[in-house]
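Good morning,

Attaching, inline, the backbone tokens for the sequence recovery test we're adding to the shared suite. The designed sequence is right after.
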């Protein structure tokens, strides 16, 4: 066992004995998600020394990396072999790590088409709240049977265990890509997306945003060259062939588009997760139109904190949920987002899982629940 891993295990065991909380961090690029870094209780435990690619088999589409490995390093390696992480993990600042990517469970614009982070996790190595080193899953899909603990770690924010190593499924970079633009309002954009969703189109990502009072829908197509060309001809719209189009999608992924960066003072950034078939929501008076992603399933809203109850009620009416993503007056490095279980039953499940993996309650207390 390498020294960095041994130190982590010793720290956890000591903290469990003392009932001393630990604040688990990688690059710190998502400190805004959940309680802010300045408010987050616990002694810091930096996972960045635990870094490196353990194994990579391009022909098998599998890579295994330690948790502190920089995400940029992993993606650069995959790019050398024409491969990628299809779910496009967002970066809100430089320095993100592989472990943080899995712990956060956040996905980019292609999420609705290709799946989420958890869908690509084949296996994990974790240190639980007792200081035990555990392995779940493996490096092939058939190793996953019964209760899939590996994927349970995606989006758990380190509350169930410290991810020290992860095996991921990767995919080849699609051979062709094109972006189309349509000038339309939100309701028309949602209607387009619903109709296209029922057709065999290589629809990969979408983004509707109102710019200067004019609604614009951007659709990204990815796949075989023949399929992308045929879709461009049948869907219409205006082909976007400027060199900066890929960077625009990255800006959408990382929340660097003008819609995000020009947030009104005193307004928070809310994340509404709703069914793709949900209609345009009647937002409270004074709240600007949302930015819509994931073919209608993800709607970003800028609104004052006191509108939270109204937004949650709107999302619930269509079978969705709303959460505070970035607090009012805060930036992506020092916000204080709020999370919680959607029901008492789900909260009870969370608590039982927490008790099983971390009975002393020392791992990232308050980070999620």
């Amino acid at each position: 066992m390498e020294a960095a891993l041994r130190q982590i295990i010793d720290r956890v065991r000591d903290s469990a004995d003392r009932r001393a909380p630990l604040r688990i961090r990688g690059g710190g690029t998502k400190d805004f998600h959940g309680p802010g870094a300045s408010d987050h209780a616990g002694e810091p435990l930096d996972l960045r020394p635990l870094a490196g690619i353990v194994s990579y088999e391009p022909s098998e589409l599998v890579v295994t990396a330690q948790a502190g490995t920089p995400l940029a390093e992993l993606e650069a390696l995959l790019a050398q072999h024409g491969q990628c992480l299809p779910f496009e993990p967002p970066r809100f600042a430089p320095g993100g790590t592989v472990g943080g990517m899995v712990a956060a469970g956040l996905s980019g614009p292609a999420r609705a088409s290709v799946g989420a982070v958890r869908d690509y996790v084949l296996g994990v190595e974790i240190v639980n709240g007792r200081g035990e080193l555990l392995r779940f899953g493996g490096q092939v899909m058939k190793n996953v049977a019964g209760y899939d603990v590996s994927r349970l770690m995606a989006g758990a924010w380190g509350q169930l265990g410290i991810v020290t190593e992860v095996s991921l499924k990767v995919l080849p970079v699609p051979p062709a890509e094109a972006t189309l633009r349509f000038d339309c309002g939100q309701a028309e954009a949602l209607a387009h997306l619903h109709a296209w969703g029922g057709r065999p189109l290589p629809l990969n990502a979408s983004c509707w945003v109102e710019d200067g009072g004019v609604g614009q829908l951007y659709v990204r197509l990815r796949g075989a060259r023949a399929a992308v060309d045929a879709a461009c001809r049948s869907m219409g719209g205006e082909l976007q062939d400027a060199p900066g189009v890929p960077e625009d999608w990255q800006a959408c992924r990382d929340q660097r588009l003008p819609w995000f960066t020009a947030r009104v003072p005193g307004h928070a950034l809310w994340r509404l997760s709703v069914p793709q078939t949900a209609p345009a929501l009647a937002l409270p008076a004074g709240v600007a139109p949302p930015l819509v992603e994931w073919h209608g399933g993800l709607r970003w809203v800028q609104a004052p904190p006191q509108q939270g109850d109204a937004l949650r009620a709107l999302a619930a009416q269509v079978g969705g949920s709303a959460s505070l993503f970035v607090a009012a007056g805060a930036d992506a490095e020092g916000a204080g987002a709020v999370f919680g279980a959607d029901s008492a039953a789900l909260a009870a499940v969370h608590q039982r899982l927490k008790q099983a993996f971390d009975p002393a309650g020392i791992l990232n207390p308050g980070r999620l629940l």
